[in-house]
Specification:
There is one protein chain. This protein is α/β, with parallel strands linked by helices. Helices cover 47% and strands 11% of the residues. It has helices spanning 19-25, 28-35, 38-48, 52-68, 73-91, 93-96, 121-124, 129-144, 146-169, 182-193, 213-226, 241-253, 278-287, 307-310, 356-362, 370-373, 375-384, 388-410, 435-439, 441-446, 483-498, and strands spanning 176-179, 204-208, 230-233, 260-266, 291-295, 314-318, 330-334, 424-428, 460-465, 468-476. The chain has a 7-stranded mixed β-sheet, sandwiched between helices. A hairpin with a 2-residue loop joins strand 9 (460-465) and strand 10 (468-476). It starts with 18 loop residues before the first helix and ends with a helix. It binds pyridoxal-5'-phosphate.
């Protein structure tokens, strides 16, 4: 039955989906036997297939009825999840409807295993076959004449790609280079600036407690090697943007001018996937003469990005997470007046280009850079879906409505709000007595232990929320998902938490 519910937002107009199907799904026979409610339920379900507004009204009514009913806990939960799903999909029918463009049929354009539901696009991305084919074509081309490639062609191709990326991100192409991933770009910047002898040696660095672990580890190394001083501003949850901006500003303001030289912030935090006010943070840094770096590992493709508007001195963004390129491709932006201080992670300087910055970053030794070369194919893929705005509207809608399905089913709340989430939603899990039970859930989901057959992975983590250690799940929405994926996750988690 669940399979037939693809795009239940279209329930009102789907002639295939009858009241009887829904009745059976909810266990109508069971209702009749135990409660004599068959007529009422069939009537209710008939109204479901008649009219969207009526669906909302009656599903809400039915939810209240269910809460008061004497059904078994499991039946109640199953019905609540299903009805919540209907409410959410029907509320969102105008934007969250996959239509003919998005949703499960699009899976055939990716390489996802048939039994795998990817609700974790945020961690590693997923590449469409057309984009991977573009990369493969470059690999074949390079092998045909590697001398021609490495000695001449590569630098021209990179030049064109940097210009394409600069247009996409609204940045000056002289400031854009490709790097393998955010970790590479961030390491290059941190280890160039904080090397114990530069002008930053005697100045402090400011980061937030939510910085990605790799950033913290790199800074810990620089603290150990060069006694670089790092100050961490604590971010508390529930998240409060004004409080965060005030905390950062008050740290700068309460120290003598020139105490801080450099600050690093995530644009979208890894967990929870909250969008931070990158532009405002950069403005505060500039006010206090601090060089600002933004870690936008999750940003290109997930939310609209305009580098000129943000105005950071340095910005790093992965393309392999939300921009559909093969793994191993990211962009590094460094403003022209900052470039003289920044060196690549690997010093080779054997590249070609108009500036030392380009020469350094374009060649870090013999390597496979074909993931970068697939960027135009990735852009084409996005265009084929109606362009970035259409893609972001759909994936954002999934996060918002999917979050509602999960939080209602789990009787909890979402950490992220519509305004500060992109395509990832962080939902509070039902809190078990035993934390180990939740920590093993992601693996159990990946092993397909749930009886609805869902095989997925969802990062689950514990953070202080209102001062209490609280478990959350980060769930990503992508063009190949629809709301039934969230519904199945809601059910699977409830079931597995009940079965240690
Ligand atoms: C905020 C943030 N920064 C950096 C990274 C590292 O990205 P990569 O593994 O592609 O280097 C991640 C990865 O998820 C991230 O979430």
């Amino acid at each position: 039955m669940a399979g037939r519910l693809v795009g239940v937002g279209r329930v009102a107009s789907d002639p295939e989906l009858g009241a009887r199907d829904l009745f059976d799904f909810l266990g109508g026979g069971h209702l009749k036997k135990r409660h004599g409610k068959k007529t009422h339920t069939l009537f209710f379900l008939e109204t479901l297939v008649l009219q969207k507004k009526k669906i909302l009204h009656d599903a809400r009514f039915e939810l209240n009825e269910l809460a008061a009913s004497r059904f078994s806990k499991e039946r109640k939960m199953k019905s609540v999840i299903f009805l919540t799903f209907l409410v959410a999909t029907c509320s969102a029918v105008s934007t969250c409807d996959p239509g003919n463009t998005f949703g499960h049929p699009l899976r055939s354009q990716f390489l996802l295993a048939a039994n795998y539901t990817n609700l974790n696009h945020g961690s590693y991305g997923a590449v469409p076959s057309s984009v991977l084919q573009a990369k493969e074509a470059w690999l074949v081309h390079i092998e045909a004449n590697s001398d021609m490639w490495f000695r001449y062609e590569m630098f021209h191709v990179l030049d064109t790609l940097e210009k394409t990326a600069a247009t996409f991100l609204n940045a000056d192409h002289k400031s854009i280079v490709f790097v393998r991933n955010a970790s590479n770009g961030l390491n290059a910047v941190l280890r160039s600036l904080l090397n114990g002898v530069s002008g930053f040696a005697k100045k402090k660095v400011l980061i937030l407690s939510e910085a990605y672990q790799m950033v913290k580890n790199c800074l810990a190394f620089l603290e150990m090697e060069f006694s670089q001083q790092v100050v961490t501003v604590n971010v508390t949850y529930p998240y409060d943007e004004t409080a965060l901006l005030n905390s950062v500003e008050s740290v700068f303001a309460s120290n003598p001018a020139g105490t801080f030289g450099f600050a690093s912030f995530s644009h979208i935090v890894s967990v929870p996937g909250i969008i931070l006010p990158a532009k405002k943070l950069v403005q505060i840094c500039k006010q206090y003469g601090v060089l600002a770096m933004i870690d936008g590992a999750h940003v290109p493709g997930q939310i609209a990005l305009d580098l000129t508007d943000i105005g950071a001195h340095i910005y790093i963004g992965n393309l392999h997470k939300w921009m559909y390129t093969p793994k191993g491709s990211a962009i590094l932006y460094v403003s022209e007046d900052t470039q003289s201080m920044i060196y690549p992670s690997v010093i080779s300087e054997e590249g070609q280009g108009p500036s030392r910055f380009k020469i350094g970053f374009r060649y870090e030794g013999t390597d496979d850079v074909t993931s970068y070369m697939a960027f135009p194919a990735a852009l084409q893929f996005v265009t084929s879906l109606g362009g970035p705005t259409a893609v972001m509207a759909y994936t954002h809608c999934l996060a918002v409505q999917g979050g509602q399905i999960l939080s209602t089913a789990w009787n909890t709340t979402t950490m992220t709000t519509e305004a500060n989430m992109g395509a990832m939603v962080d939902v509070m899990l039902p809190q078990p007595q035993n934390g180990t039970l939740i920590s093993t859930l992601p693996t159990r989901l990946l092993q397909g232990e749930a009886s609805n057959g869902l095989v997925t992975y969802v990062p689950m983590y514990s953070v202080p929320y209102n001062g209490q250690a609280t478990w959350f799940a980060r769930v990503s929405g992508q063009v190949y998902n629809d709301l039934t994926d969230y519904q199945r996750l809601a059910e699977a988690v409830v079931e597995l938490l009940g079965k240690p």
